[in-house]
Amino acid sequence: MSPSSSSPASASASASGAAPVIVWFRDDLRLADHPALSHAVASGAPVLCLFVHDPRTAPSGAAQWWLHGGLCALRDDLSRMGATLHVAHGDATVLVPRLAQLAHAAQVVWNRRYDPQGRETDTTIKAALKQDGVAAHSFAASVMHEPWTVRTRAGDAFRVYTAWWRAARAMGDPPPPLPAPRRIGDAGMPDGWRAECVGIDALGFLPVAPDWAGGLRATWHPGEAAARARLHEFVQDDMAGYATARDRPDLPATSMLSPALRFGHISPRQAWHAVACDGGGAAEDRAKFLAELGWRDFAVSLLYEQPELVRSNFRTEFDAMPWRNDARDLHAWQQGCTGYPIVDAGMRQLWRTGWMHNRVRMIVASFLTKHLLMDWRVGEGWFRDTLVDADIASNVVNWQWVAGCGVDAAPYFRVFNPVLQGKKFDPDGTYVRRWVPELAHLPASRIHCPWTCAPAEVPRGYPAPIVGLDEGRARALSAWRGLSGAT
Ligand code: FAD
């Protein structure tokens, strides 16, 4: 893994001292368990820490707000170690090779990503660096099992989660996480970089007018330190009962670590080992949590195998689905004004905080794709803009799963009834009361079906259901039965 000493870049750099190693940060905004950073530090060469905002691969909306905070936290963490985070803005396929040349870098190192656009970008950059005589090394850090490592006996990719998980477990625990480096030998600002680099604020990630991020600021603290503190707190105090309580949006029963995992403030290996080795709760709680981390890897591997899933149905019979295109219904769903309290609570929680409980994500996704008969891609796009944890693999795979057109998906005919789901998973109505305060006075027996109350009890502003439960269900099933090959 040592750089080629005959390369033009390292030859010219060696005239002015050791050639630096560029660590290119992407979805791995942390110092611990960062193999690319550890490799750079271990090389003994001066280090340049780089983040490139490439609009083609960048998140949007709430996730962009998170990214701003994550970058500020990384900048401060690096600065405490004497290193600088350099930030550039533009096409990474042009910028990374150019910055490497300007710095006379010996190597550029990064942790691998697996989504179609990210892979294409990295392959192009690797080739460009090679042509310039700069070594490029990549490392596994963002998943527990890289997509090509978990295979059937015949060497094929898995299409069923339970079988994938069994095979992944048979491979043993993921490797233990690496410690953060003690010190980073910073290379200073190379000639020519000043003109290419910008401050984090200049990326324009924070909303100005209107400032819609108040609820996000009140809910989250992006960055490695906060993520590690939350992981510790979850493992020590909140694990007990996770296996059953994780389905209850009214209880603080899940880790809420998804945005920290999405932006790599902690790695899945760190989460795994914290839970598997030190986790509180019963064995079934720990096993369930680890299996959820497994879903994250499984989604990554599905998209790796079939990049077209980003836009295309896995089950192609769904290509003929007569999805409705109704702007009024869509708006009601997005704004949390469908007249179904559990759906509205979820959509308002999402709008305010950039996050929604997993059970409620399933309920609102089922409502959109079944009761409203709207294309899963419309919902996926809304989530992509509004979730702080928006992740292409997890989002697409879960939307296709709920919509019935995905890999190992719930059958389309399994239509969630939002009233029954509400009664089962939010039995006292605590979750609805929090996010739909105009219904807070209703008794638990009626809060999930306010239309059954006396008219005077229902607040004027709260809408009547935009579609009847039976009507929406029947319309969805009739559309689905019309598909050839629907099973
Ligand atoms: P916990 O219950 O504490 O789980 C721990 C971790 O496991 C999570 O942080 C997450 O990284 C992973 N995980 C849990 N459930 C899933 C799952 N079903 N699929 C993949 N990973 C999972 N998750 C995202 O991170 N980004 C998304 O864009 C996203 N979109 C979704 C869209 C829909 C329609 C649905 C139904 C689910 C989506 N999920 C997504 C999965 C899941 O809802 C969230 O990961 C979870 O709610 C995060 O909360 P938590 O960290 O408290 O989870």
TrEMBL record:
<dbReference type="InterPro" id="IPR018394">
    <property type="entry name" value="DNA_photolyase_1_CS_C"/>
</dbReference>
<keyword id="KW-0274">FAD</keyword>
<keyword id="KW-0157">Chromophore</keyword>
<dbReference type="InterPro" id="IPR006050">
    <property type="entry name" value="DNA_photolyase_N"/>
</dbReference>
<keyword id="KW-0285">Flavoprotein</keyword>
<dbReference type="InterPro" id="IPR002081">
    <property type="entry name" value="Cryptochrome/DNA_photolyase_1"/>
</dbReference>
<dbReference type="InterPro" id="IPR036134">
    <property type="entry name" value="Crypto/Photolyase_FAD-like_sf"/>
</dbReference>
<dbReference type="InterPro" id="IPR014729">
    <property type="entry name" value="Rossmann-like_a/b/a_fold"/>
</dbReference>
<dbReference type="InterPro" id="IPR005101">
    <property type="entry name" value="Cryptochr/Photolyase_FAD-bd"/>
</dbReference>
<dbReference type="Pfam" id="PF03441">
    <property type="entry name" value="FAD_binding_7"/>
</dbReference>
<dbReference type="InterPro" id="IPR036155">
    <property type="entry name" value="Crypto/Photolyase_N_sf"/>
</dbReference>
<feature type="domain" description="Photolyase/cryptochrome alpha/beta">
    <location>
        <begin position="19"/>
        <end position="144"/>
    </location>
</feature>
<comment type="similarity">
    <text>Belongs to the DNA photolyase family.</text>
</comment>
<protein>
    <submittedName>
        <fullName>Deoxyribodipyrimidine photolyase</fullName>
    </submittedName>
</protein>
<dbReference type="Pfam" id="PF00875">
    <property type="entry name" value="DNA_photolyase"/>
</dbReference>
